[in-house]
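[Discussion] Sanity-checking designs against the backbone

I'm trying to build intuition for which residues belong where. Below is a structure token string of 162 positions. I'd appreciate it if someone posts a full sequence so I can compare it with mine line by line.
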């Protein structure tokens, strides 16, 4: 709560508990502690059968949020798709990967609660592309490769004689 509310006494309270001789709860101002306890008592956990899925819109479709890596900070979703994972895009230079690029990739991966799908293409607008070096950092046992081509579309549309 100190991190979220950031009260003016936060640093002092933390400093006083570092040596372990004083209990955190004994140092907190009583009104702050009582407000936190009131919030805890009022908390209603979500129903157990809830999957935290967003409600469908009036038209019956589920909302989709499209955002940048920076815009995704603090968000989460059941399913996350990271598109455009190519060398010379993310990372811009696979031979000299920057910390910020690693952070962006990690932010993207960690937004998901169920499944994260990484998307890349081999050929885009007549130019050949290589998958991002970041994909090779993931344990192969955690990856499922799906090649989407004419054969895939025929198979999934029921025309390929399953």
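Best answer:
Here's mine. Compare freely.
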């Amino acid at each position: 709560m100190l991190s979220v509310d950031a009260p003016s006494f936060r640093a002092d309270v933390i400093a006083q508990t570092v040596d372990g001789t004083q209990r955190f709860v004994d140092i907190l101002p009583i009104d702050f502690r009582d407000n936190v306890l009131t919030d805890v008592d009022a908390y209603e956990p979500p129903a157990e059968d809830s999957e935290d899925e967003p409600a469908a819109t009036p038209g019956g479709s589920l909302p989709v949020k499209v955002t940048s890596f920076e815009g995704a900070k603090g968000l989460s979703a059941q399913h996350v798709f990271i598109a455009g994972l190519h060398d010379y895009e993310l990372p811009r230079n696979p031979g000299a990967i920057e910390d910020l690029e690693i952070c962006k990739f990690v932010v993207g991966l960690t937004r998901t609660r169920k499944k994260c799908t990484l998307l890349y293409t081999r050929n885009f607008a007549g130019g050949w592309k290589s998958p991002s070096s970041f994909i090779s950092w993931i344990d192969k046992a955690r990856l499922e490769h799906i090649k989407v081509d004419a054969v895939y579309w025929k198979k999934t549309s029921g025309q390929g004689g399953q």
